[in-house]
Design brief:
This protein is an alpha+beta fold. It has 3 helices and 2 strands. Strands 1-2 form a two-stranded parallel sheet. The protein has one domain. The radius of gyration is 12 Å and the shape is globular.
């Protein structure tokens, strides 16, 4: 089991503070979080949100870091 987020397709930042409780729940339960990164040709996609560097603050603030 894992959580895969699609910020490119959903046009949201993976570093959005509203996701922190979700990341914490995954950490508490040992569930990996996978980020869909890269480009997409789907209408409305935002490639800029697929940059893995957006997660650097999330990872740095994690107790598991």
């Amino acid at each position: 089991m894992a959580l895969k987020i699609h910020p490119v397709h959903g046009a949201f930042s993976p570093a959005d503070k509203e996701l922190y409780p979700v990341y914490q729940l995954c950490l508490d339960r040992g569930v990996p979080v996978i980020l869909h990164s890269g480009t997409s040709s789907f209408p409305g996609s935002r490639t800029s949100f697929g940059n893995p560097e957006l997660l650097s603050d999330v990872v740095a603030g994690s107790p598991a870091a």
